[in-house]
Specification:
Length: 392
């Protein structure tokens, strides 16, 4: 495995962790604050979330030799940030355990895997392109924040695609970091202190209203807004996703780590696309090494707790947005091309894509789920056989 390790694997893994934390760690902080956790309990959340993502990513990637990445449930964290008012930490832990049990049961029964196989490839690719579209667009929006930094990274990317296509994204990341450091765009490094944090156990308390009002919605948004796009990401990259095994592993991780703050783990979509795309490796069979690197880095970052997370928070937002957007350009283009390749079903794929891009939510469930439902309905309607004329 080490003989096949490339610089592109290391860069993809580093970008995954960078994007994964900077894009949603602030939501985790809000959820922690909403539940009234102490500082040591907050550090515990960050420790087990990092370890949970790292260990489950390592387990699945090494077992199946695929770039399978896991993540904490970002929509779940947003739900917790707004839905834990008046709920004690012990009751919240009880809801986390309930959600973990449902996730594990879903994996063991295999019903979700059978459902995922019913999704046409055109809709799967359209859904993935829609999910990643905003991240690609963010690279261009970042021009208004720091035109010089984004311009330098963009020129490097274009030159890299011509001169050294395999290492274009790693060089873009390096140039961006050097440019930002030279311009003084990073935060105050002197304010950082480094120390290891330890998990802290919180005994669960089971309250039926909290289980129904928090635990069940946490399960629903995790399945609809995270696991389904995660499955689609792997399928679109050409990998047969081990859906049931992945849900079982992430569900068990949620069960075990819930008392320490690991509220819900699931398949990743956006960060997984970075590891599963051609930028990580031209050879699809060895792209899993990038997710292995990401898993190791997640574990190391998790052990540092909040003090290490602060490193990600001082990075310029324009730097993160640009490197993520450029790293996903190929995946977005390939997904759109595959989604619209055939005229039959093109309308359904386009509607799925645009519905996903819209970002609208209903009943607390994100656009990706509703886009898929509408896309399936349109596919069904547009592929119905035409009525035959009545013979007289």
């Amino acid at each position: 495995m080490l003989r096949n390790l490339k610089l592109s694997h290391l860069a993809a893994g580093a970008i995954v962790v960078l994007v994964g934390y900077t894009s949603s760690v602030a939501i985790i902080f809000q959820a922690i604050e909403a539940v009234g956790a102490t500082q040591t309990q907050a550090n515990s959340w960050l420790v087990v979330l990092g370890l949970g993502m790292g260990l489950t990513s390592l387990t699945l990637s090494l077992r199946f030799r695929m770039p399978i990445l896991t993540a904490w449930s970002t929509p779940g964290a947003a739900l917790l940030a707004t839905g834990l008012d008046g709920v004690s930490l012990s009751q919240a832990v009880g809801a986390f355990l309930f959600c973990g049990a449902l996730l594990t049961l879903t994996g063991l029964t295999g019903w979700f895997e059978r459902l995922a196989k019913l999704i046409p490839d055109s809709l799967a690719n359209a859904l993935l392109a829609g999910i990643l579209f905003q991240f690609g667009l963010s690279a261009f929006h970042a021009l208004s924040d720091d035109a010089a930094l984004v311009g330098a990274m963009g020129v490097t990317f274009l030159a890299g695609k011509v001169l050294f296509p395999r290492y274009a994204v790693p060089v873009v990341l390096l140039v961006g970091c050097l440019w930002a450091a030279g311009a003084g765009s990073f935060g105050d490094l002197d304010a950082l202190t480094f120390s290891l944090s330890m998990p802290e156990f919180v005994a669960p308390e089971f309250s039926l209203p909290v289980l129904i009002g928090v635990g069940l919605p946490l399960y629903v948004v995790t399945m609809c807004s995270q696991n389904m796009p995660g499955v689609v990401t792997l399928r679109s990259a050409g990998y047969p996703p081990p859906v049931s095994a992945s849900l079982t592993v992430t569900g068990l991780a949620s069960l075990i780590l819930s008392p320490f703050g690991g509220f819900a783990f699931n398949l990743a979509a956006i960060t997984a696309a970075i590891c599963a795309g051609p930028e990580a490796d031209e050879n699809p069979k060895s792209r899993y090494l990038s997710s292995v690197i990401a898993g190791v880095l997640y574990c190391l970052v998790g052990l540092g707790g909040a003090t290490v997370i602060s490193l990600f928070l001082i990075a310029p937002k324009a730097l993160i947005a640009t490197v993520a957007g450029l790293a996903l350009l190929s995946t977005i283009g390939n997904s759109l091309s595959a989604a619209l390749a055939e005229s039959r079903g093109r309308e359904a794929a386009l509607i799925t894509f645009m519905m996903t891009v819209s970002g609208v939510t209903f009943a607390g469930i994100g656009a990706a789920f509703w886009a898929l439902l509408i896309g399936l309905a349109v596919t069904r309607l547009t592929t119905l056989p035409l009525p035959q004329p009545i013979k007289t």
